[in-house]
Amino acid sequence: MQLGKDFIKALKQIEVEKGLPIEIIASSLEAAMVSAYKKYRNGNQDVEVHVNLTSGEISLAERYRIVEEVENRDAEWTKLEAAEHGHGGLDVGDFAYVEVYPENFSRIAAQTARQVIIQRLKDAERQIIFNEFADHIGDMVAGTIFKAEGDQILVRVNDRTDALLPREERISGELYPPGDRKKFLLLDVRKTTRGPRIIVSRTHPGLLKKLLGLEVPEIAEGTVEIRSIVREAGTRAKIAVASLDVNVDPVGACVGNSGARIKSISEELGGERIDVIIWSNEPMQFVRNALSPAKVTKIEPVLEQEHSLRVYVRQDQLSLAIGKAGQNVRLAARLTGWKIDIKVIEPERLPTMQDLFEDIIKTSGESLWEDLPKD
Questions:
Q1: Cα–Cα distance, 257 to 269 (Å, whole number)
Q2: How far is CA 117 from the centre of its chain?
Q3: Which residues are bridge partners to 201 per DSSP?
Q4: For position 152, what pLDDT does the model report?
Q5: Residue 135 per-residue DSSP state
Q6: Which residues touch 203 (CB under 8 Å, ≥6 apart)?
Q7: CA dist., res. 300 & res. 321, Å (int)
Q8: Contact, 209 vs 220, CB < 8 A?
């Protein structure tokens, strides 16, 4: 059965355009034609099909197993029956092959081929997309806002793939007009009956970490390490960094000249404020650093509570230490892993003139009382 070289040429064009090996298409065609032939014969035949990828010729043969006693007339022969069909000399367990050329089957084969190629391409493209993205979960991807679909935003990440930005992964208050290009964290890839479901995020701390690696060469090179990172996306984040080189200031490296590096990252995240602090393996110092920009006066452990510290600040530093709606202390606690209790420390007060006068009167009064006769 000849489909011709034009057919093979079409398969090879698909191979190039879709990146699908022609051998996969051919094997799918063969399997589909086996099914089509059985349906055509309305029986239980044992069929083999071979597609010649050079000539475009398709060979089709019914296969008969040689048995002592026939149970399936469509796929079994005795030795005598095999000999009667021109296949003498075969033993039990051997196979006899009979090439067949069914009338009008070329039309059925062509229709089957078309259906199989379309379905196989869909399946293969889905698998290729899944493999492409499944290996990059946790990486940063750039994408263009495509359209809104219910509570989800569709993001086009390449010519043939859209990702979903769920509501919970969006920065609060951030707008997503179609055509806007942004950076995202590839959060998850799942197989579904409709193809791979790719989830991206704008709120995950990993996105901030990837942006830092992109913007700060010292992080990309490994000279500066990010030890801890927390976010309340769109409003504020805290990052603890450490340097492996005593000559490199980790905070300065992240912030950049005149704050250029951290400003660029902040703008990408919708103006999110980013505090960069020095990591310390000493909990009290780490907490002190984490509460920046507030200045801490004293820190002490809370003995009656595990993993808890009491932090004292002056009255004028209280609002900075706590932050708007408690955000600063909340992020500092998440960053360090310690419970933080903020207290105001009363400043030491120099004695006033009134204090001195009261002391004199008190002292004088005591002296007069001692000088009185004791009858």
A1: 20
A2: 32
A3: 185
A4: 83
A5: T
A6: 168, 169, 170, 171, 231, 233, 234
A7: 16
A8: no
Asked if the bond preceding 293 is cis, omega within 30° of 0, the reply is yes
Separation between Cα atoms, residue 257 and residue 264, nearest integer Å: 12
95 within 8 A of 63, measured Cβ to Cβ: yes
Q: Could you give the residue ranges of the DSSP H alpha helices within the chain? A: 5-18, 22-41, 79-84, 105-134, 205-215, 217-221, 250-255, 260-268, 283-290, 318-322, 327-336, 353-371
The token duo for 295 is 């200045």
Q: How far apart are CA 42 and CA 192, in angstroms?
A: 34
With beta carbons less than 8 A apart as the criterion, state whether 3 and 57 touch: yes
Q: What is the pTM of this model?
A: 0.68
The CATH class given to the 294-368 domain equals alpha beta
| Gap between the Cα atoms of 288 and 277, Å rounded | 10
Average pLDDT of each block of 10 consecutive residues along the chain (375 residues)?
65 73 78 79 85 80 93 92 91 92 67 70 78 89 88 88 92 91 94 86 96 95 96 96 95 94 95 95 95 94 91 94 95 96 78 66 57 55
Give the CATH superfamily of 136-203. Nucleic acid-binding proteins (2.40.50.140)
Task: Report the SS3 class of residue 154.
Answer: strand
Is the separation of the CB atoms in 342 and 293 below 8 Å?
no
Instruction: Please tell me the CATH superfamily of domain 215-279, with its number.
Output: K homology (KH) domain (3.30.300.20)
Tell me the backbone φ, ψ of residue 73, rounded to 5 degrees: -65, -20
